[in-house]
Amino acid sequence: MVNNEDSVISLRGVAKHFGAVRAVDDVSFEIRRGEFFSLLGPSGCGKTTLLRLLAGFDFPTQGEILIDGQPMSSVPPYKRPTNTVFQSYAIFPHLSVAENIGYGLRKKGLSKRELAESVHQALEQMKLAGYGSRAAHQLSGGHRQRVALARALVCRPKVLLLDEPLGALDRKLREAMQIELRQLQRSVGITFVFVTHDQEEALSLSDRIAVMSKGRVLQIDSAARLYEVPNCRLVADFIGSMNFFDGSIKCVDNGHVIVDVGPAGSLCVPKIQKNVELGAEVTVAVRPEKVHIEWRAPKPKGNAIVGRIADESYLGDRSHYYVEVPGMIRRVCVAHQNAERFRRSIESHGRQVWLTWSTESAVLLPRE
Amino acid sequence: MASVTGGPLVGHARSRPLSQRFRALLLRSEALRGYILLTPTLLVMFLLLVVPLCGMIAFSFFTQVYFDIDFTLTLKNYWSIIKPGAGNTYLGIPFPFETPVYTILLVKSLLMSLVATSVIVLMAYPMAYFIAFRATNHKFLWLVLITVPLWTSYLLRVFAWKVILGHNGVLNSGLISIGVIEEPLGFLLYNPAAVIITLTHAWLAFAILPIYVSLEKIDRSLLEAATDLGDSKLIRFLRVTLPLSLPGVISSALMVFIPTVGDYVTPAQVGGTSGIMIGTIIQRQFGAANNWPLGSALSIFMMLAVTAIVCLFLWGVGNDRIKARGA
Ligand SMILES: Nc1ncnc2c1ncn2[C@@H]1O[C@H](COP(=O)(O)OP(=O)(O)OP(=O)(O)O)[C@@H](O)[C@H]1O
Ligand SMILES: [Mg+2]
To answer: Domain of A329?
Structure first.
């Protein structure tokens, strides 16, 4: 946690309490200059609160926030080098689109011509040319979103804070805006701090993601690492779906750990943690798409457990099979890519199957 | 698609009993439902507003001949209000009319009302602001407290001010007893200021509510957005809060201004001779002077003046902003 050169925001033990509620609880991390950083977590985990602390609408109960190396403990929002895109967009209803976009420029002492020029450029950049004189209530949701973005970006902040900016758009528009947002961020080079509860959005957009739960940051990593190497069960469960096998460590050799998971047998997991104790309570996690269904008993190699197909759901591009495994409460989910048409007509219900996966696909997690 | 659903359904509707068909019509037609809802209001409005108004307009074209009314239509009443003559001056402005008292009183009433309205709006705004933005837990209690003065009758409130401001009133005797003054102050009561104070007190509560509602309606994220974009609190108030609460301010101002111009109870009680307003003169025409046609003409004269001022005010304040906010 050194304040290195390329970090634009650093949080040091930041906490925000509302009475007994710990909305943000002892959070410390750094956000790098120019990165697309996402705060991801379930509803009520404190994402908005954390963003408001950065914007200055609220002040931390404990800890310190540094933006660009400057402590922010006594800096009001209007003096911070940040701008915010609000979830509700907060477009001023009494002003036209152009006036909205130029709102934050008034203070910068620009001449009327320069101001109009900046607004015009912003309109062009956000594909809003021709909308300048419209009133706010004559805009569609997608356009409002662009106005909100343009209004914040035109002020050239060091950090742009976005609170679920795509939450109110329909899926198609949302996907289009995601791509645009990512391109925009690359082209302007401003640090984005992006709040979302949509994991797909976070995974596809971000350089790094902080996964939050109950006011705490659980893991900060790139999308791929969060998905493939989650550091705890909560992260593993929140991002994508995951099968968990609870057990205890039976044997450790160089590079691998053998975990005894009761009646289902033992599973072999790569050893990534340094200190692994024999007999420790752990959880083995495997993604559904990494599990293969074998209809006949496989040759004993790698991980294999026996179960019975209890349910199946057809999702178009793939099917999910839910397999009952003796000794496990939760059914194991297996995702099967539907590479051929109508293959699922095979009568599968109640059939005995063998589930296998390569050792490298499994992750060892501490038990919670 | 249309032919499949359209044809048989219409035929079916014909065969239903009348009550069902009426209900179907009612459910289908938004306008009809609206009119039915409005019926009581429209009836009351018609009987108590339109009919008397028409009567008054008619009367203003008649003439009073001692105790009888001459029903031949004439503009004589209006002419007597604006008939040129030697005239008089008021506040340095010449009123070159034969009977200048009507026009002078009209202008005076408008001015007094304007002052009262301004004072009321200026006092109501901070109160409404406080309840909307600062009071967090007890908004309802505050609103109820504001309406407390309305629980007593208007007349009682006017009398109360008489008691407070009078020669031996609360204020004078209080000041004498603590030794600030020797003699009772004579200038407290029976002047325009006393009328304005009384009007302010009587109408303040009414003015707070519309302003409060328009402030309460402002999306808080707009205020945060303004701060975020670099506005300090004062600038933010001027650029966002005030313009967005303007509809409330306007309706408050109109709600106070329109009825106070024609008020005659307050000037009669606390105004004395210098605090007289046009309402007093109109009331006298319908009472002691017994000249209903002239009274009617004066009323309509006043109504036109108020309407003109209101239109001017609305035009000046920028109607498009109100529309933008309303939509
Ligand atoms: N002003 C406040 N007063 C009291 N409690 C608050 C306040 N703001 C937030 N909280 C509480 O803090 C917690 C975190 O809220 P926050 O709005 O940060 O969640 P979030 O992660 O943004 O959720 P969502 O995804 O639903 O927007 C919640 O339990 C919420 O009830
Ligand atoms: Mg939120």
So the answer is: 244-366
- Write the pLDDT tens digit of every residue in A164-206: 988 878 888 888 889 989 998 999 889 999 999 888 899 999 9
Counting atoms of ligand 1 from 1, which one is nearest the CA of A42? Answer: 25
Say yes or no: A42 contacts chain B, CB-CB below 8 A. Answer: no
Helices B101-129 and B242-261: crossing angle in degrees, nearest 10, is 140
Angle at B206 between CA B203 and CA B207, to 5 degrees: 90
Distance CA A260, CA A249 (A): 6
3-state secondary structure of A127: coil
> Which residues sit with their C-beta closer than 6 Å to ligand 1?
A 18, 21, 23, 41, 43-49, 197
Are A200 and A347 members of one domain? no
Residues A147 and A198 in one domain: yes
| Count of CB atoms situated within 10 Å of the CB of B305 | 17
Greater pLDDT, B34 or A341 = B34
The ipTM value here is: 0.82
Of ligand 1's listed atoms, the one at least distance from the Cα of A46 is 18
Give chain A's domain count: 2
Mean pLDDT of the A105-132 span: 85
Q: Are B229 and A103 in contact (CB under 8 A)?
A: yes
Q: Which of A209, A237, A265 is the last residue of a domain?
A: A237
Q: How far apart are CA B239 and CA B241, in angstroms?
A: 6
Are B271 and B190 a contacting pair, CB within 8 Å? Answer: yes
Q: Do A211 and A121 share a domain, yes or no?
A: yes
In this structure, is residue A357 part of a structural domain? yes
Continuous segment of H or E residues that includes residue A29: strand A21-32
- Whether A85 and A187 map to the same domain: the answer is yes
Q: Is residue A5 predicted with pLDDT exceeding 80?
A: no
Q: What is the CATH number of the domain that holds A25?
A: 3.40.50.300
Q: Answer yes or no: is A2 within a domain.
A: no
- DSSP bridge partners of A249: A259
CATH number for A293: 2.40.50.100
Whether residues A227 and A169 share a domain: the answer is yes
Indicate whether A249 belongs to any domain. yes
Cβ distance B325 to A107 less than 8 Å, yes or no, reads: no
Averaged pLDDT score across all residues of chain B: 86
Nearest to B263 by CA among B192, B324, B205, B162: B192
**Which domains does chain B show, CATH number per domain?**
2-50 (no CATH), 101-326 (1.10.3720.10)
CA of A23 from ligand 1 middle (Å) equals 6
* A164 shares a domain with A78: yes
pLDDT tens across B267-318, in order? 888 888 888 889 989 999 998 888 999 999 999 999 999 999 999 988 887 7
Q: Model confidence over B99-156: pLDDT tens digits?
A: 888 999 999 999 999 999 999 999 999 999 999 998 888 888 888 888 887 888 888 8
User: What residues of A are in contact with residue B319 (Cβ under 8 Å)?
Assistant: none
What predicted TM-score, i.e. pTM, was given to this entire model?
Answer: 0.80
Q: Do B230 and A78 touch (CB under 8 A)?
A: yes
**What Rg, from alpha-carbon coordinates, does chain A have?**
25
- Domain termination residue (choose one: A237, A264, A294): A237
